[in-house]
Write a structure and sequence with these properties.
The structure holds 2 protein chains of 2 kinds. By secondary structure, chain A is of the alpha+beta class. Helix content of chain A is 39%, strand content 16%. Chain A is elongated and about 55 Å long. Classes of the chains: A alpha+beta, B alpha+beta.
Chain lengths: 179, 462
């Protein structure tokens, strides 16, 4: 079985047609589904939040069988994720894609339960603390993408469950969670 | 009844075209003819058939009667013919007024709404055999040309006249035929009413002028005719050589190596592909050109189709067909039209257009399913599972042309049997595994099925 770092690749990763965009509708639908699952799976375990279409991405090439995805194919697969709400284009040119293996809503819920578990209700945390603090170590929040985190926090603020206040620089924004 | 006696049974091909014995060629093809006979003693008129096709060859007037009268359904297996040598006359001169008569009738046609007729007067013996010694009765055979477009009476008559004058039956004559003609000529006669004055006189003069022009033209084209007749000889020669080759291996079966047999076989095939005895031409078939061409083509493609596994590219047929036709080449448009007409006939072949635009001729009996099964078997071989198959691989296994093989693979792909792999190394096809994989558990491989076969084949390589 082939591996990318500690990520276990499925068998069909060595199947050459997997890397050629299939022209027949039914076949392509299935191919797209398999790519979506693999991308999400990989990003979740490897904590990848952003895929650059023009940058090298280990999943998009298989040196063993000497196949790689064309630019068109990459865009097709990521667009399929975007359509499902599991990814978002960062820019209009579709050059970078934000992968949301959890939806913003799910992230927000996750943050709330994290806050509850650690007794931070009514306390104040900086955004950086959530991303890289000791408390978040071992959770999904650790090392998460700042853009996604901010959007989740804003959602919470909108619901009245948190208040974001700005510090002197962008780095030290603080969040106050309300019970 | 009387006519039946001397209208012999005549075979046609399955496509309803007359089958020609050596050295015969269609001169003129007409449709919608009525054959009447008049026996002078009885003056009995009996239309033989209400509808039919008439073919004029140097030796015979072939009457292709169609039992139900429809051209498109070729139901008849037997046809009748009038042996032209029996109705010939010794001196061609006596036929001149005959052509004249025809033009009168043709004129009349326009005025009085009657159909142009060609009358042949022959004498027949008591039992109805024409031209045999002791012809006591005189029989008038009237060919009524029906249909305004299909019948070009002047040209038909020109052909008849030419064939008559050429006396092809005598040139060919092998004792029997010419002897019969000789004997026949003493007692048989052709007598046609000949107007000599008035408008008909003028017309006759006109006819003479026309004929002299025709003669000049014929002289001019004589070289071409010589070339054509040589081409015919070449066909006969090729046929002879083929027969010789066929008998060759039997004599020295042990001496020849396999290789030689192979090349001989090839040579035979090549010889075989040279000749179509009587190619349909625009000249001979007129308005029925495409229809007749279509039938001839349907007859012709059987052999190449068999050899190429039930499907052959249109372009290949075009080459083969034209080679077989020798000097009477046809245009690609004519071929296409002839193929398109197959839809209207009951023929075992069909024209098929692939999505890519490639056109092929294939047997109706050949099903895609059978081809798909063979392709499937091919891609499921361990090697093919690993590295896929290219169109040329498929072509070799299926015994068809690479272009055809590619079309088959693409069709199989569109049915979800195969999927493609494009890489710098080329364009290859694999068995479609996508449908075998469970989206909810992408790592799972069942213990059975195509996917597990592929996994074990692929793992063996790495």
């Amino acid at each position: 079985m082939q591996k990318l770092g500690d990520f276990k690749l499925p068998h069909f990763f060595n199947y050459p047609p997997y890397f050629t965009l299939q022209p027949i509708r039914d076949t392509r639908e299935k191919q797209v589904q398999l790519w979506k699952e693999l991308i999400i799976d990989y990003c979740r375990t490897q904590k990848v939040f952003v895929i650059g279409l023009e940058e090298e991405f280990p999943l998009f090439a298989n040196p063993v069988i000497e196949r790689s995805l064309s630019h068109e194919a990459r865009e097709v697969f990521l667009s399929a994720l975007v359509q499902e709400g599991r990814a978002e284009w960062v820019d209009k040119g579709h050059k970078k894609c934000l992968i949301l293996w959890l939806r913003i809503q799910d992230w927000a819920d996750y943050i709330l339960s994290f806050v509850k578990d650690n007794g931070f209700e009514d306390g104040v945390l900086t955004v950086e603390e959530i991303r890289s603090g000791i408390e978040s170590r071992g959770t999904e929040l650790h090392g998460m993408d700042r853009t996604i985190l901010m959007r989740a926090l804003k959602l919470l603020e909108h619901k009245g469950k948190a208040t974001i206040f700005k510090g002197t620089s962008a780095d030290d924004e603080g969040v106050k969670f309300s019970a | 009844m009387l006519l039946r006696l001397w209208l012999l049974e005549f075979l046609t091909t399955s496509m309803g075209r007359s089958r020609f014995i050596t050295n015969k060629k269609e001169s003129k093809y007409l449709s919608k003819l009525e054959l009447e006979q008049k026996v002078k003693t009885q003056m009995k008129r009996s239309p033989l058939s209400r509808d039919g096709n008439k073919t004029l060859t140097p030796r015979v007037i072939t009457w292709l009667g169609l039992s139900n009268g429809a051209l498109t359904t070729v139901a008849c297996k037997s046809c009748d013919f009038v042996v032209l040598s029996y109705i010939g006359h010794k001196t061609p001169l006596s036929l001149k007024p005959f052509s004249f008569t025809l033009s009168i009738y043709a004129t009349l046609d326009r005025k009085c709404n009657s159909r142009p007729r060609v009358r042949l007067q022959v004498s027949a013996s008591q039992d109805g055999v024409i031209g045999e010694r002791g012809g006591a009765r005189s029989v008038v055979i009237t060919l009524v040309l029906r249909g305004s477009k299909s019948g070009d009476p002047d040209s038909f008559f020109g052909r008849l006249w030419e064939a008559w004058r050429g006396r092809a039956w005598e040139v060919e004559g092998e004792g029997e035929g010419s002897a019969a003609a000789e004997r026949g000529s003493s007692s048989s006669s052709v007598r046609i009413a000949m107007p000599v004055v008035g408008i008909s006189g003028l017309l006759r003069r006109e006819q003479e002028i026309w004929e002299s022009t025709d003669k000049t033209l014929q002289d001019a084209f004589q070289d071409l005719n010589a070339l054509m007749s040589k081409a015919k000889e070449m066909v006969i020669l090729a046929e002879k050589m083929r027969l010789k080759l066929l008998s060759g291996p039997a004599n020295q079966a042990n001496a020849v190596k396999d290789e030689e047999i192979g090349s001989k076989q090839e040579m035979q095939d090549w010889m075989l592909s040279v000749g179509i005895a009587s190619p349909v031409t625009k000249e001979s078939a007129g308005a029925l050109y495409h229809q007749q061409l279509s039938r001839q083509l349907a007859d012709f493609v059987k052999l190449p189709l068999e050899k190429s596994g039930g499907m052959i590219a249109l372009i290949d047929i075009y080459c083969l067909f034209n080679r077989a036709r020798g000097t009477e080449l046809i245009s690609p448009e004519d071929l296409l039209q002839a193929c398109a007409l197959w839809e209207k006939f009951d023929v075992p072949v069909m024209l098929r257009k692939f999505d890519s635009g490639v056109m092929v001729i294939q047997n109706k009996s050949q099903s895609d399913e059978e081809v798909f099964e063979r392709i499937k078997a091919l891609v499921l071989k361990p090697d093919a599972l690993k590295i896929g198959i290219s169109p040329s691989d498929a072509a070799m296994t299926l015994g068809i042309a690479p272009a055809m093989a590619k079309e088959h693979l693409l069709t199989a792909e569109s049915k979800g049997i195969l999927c493609r792999d494009t890489s710098p190394e080329g364009f290859r096809f694999y068995i479609n595994l996508f449908k075998e994989i469970d989206v909810n558990n992408i790592h799972m491989v069942k213990d059975y099925g195509v996917y597990s076969c592929w996994v074990s084949a692929a793992c063996a390589s790495t």
